[in-house]
Design brief:
By secondary structure, this protein is mainly alpha-helical. It is 49% helix and 9% strand. The model has no long low-confidence stretch (mean pLDDT 91).
């Protein structure tokens, strides 16, 4: 494993531990902060990866914001709300 990959895995692990103790409301707030950010850095990539993993771990449906491409999943960073009935993140205007 390269030094860069090791660093990324460490940072993702750091954020995963943080997100594991947060409420769904807090996860949504964190996701929405990504939607309003215009810069993209390696740290933001780690943050995003850990946040997405935590939402998937909790079985939150991300279909409305995730691509259908089977080769590579991509997420649309738009403001969302959590729908308790469908256990899903839904884009909001």
């Amino acid at each position: 494993m390269t030094k860069t990959n090791t660093y990324a895995q460490e940072r993702i692990g750091f954020y995963e531990a943080r997100f594991a103790s947060e409420t769904i409301s807090q996860l949504v707030t964190n996701f929405n902060s990504l939607a309003s950010s215009h810069g993209w850095t390696a740290e933001r990539s780690c943050y995003s990866a850990a946040l997405t993993r935590e939402m998937q771990r909790r079985s939150i449906d991300l279909t409305a914001i995730m691509s259908n491409d089977t080769e590579q999943q991509t997420i649309r960073y738009v403001r969302v709300a959590y729908d308790e009935d469908s256990h899903a993140l839904l884009p909001i205007a």
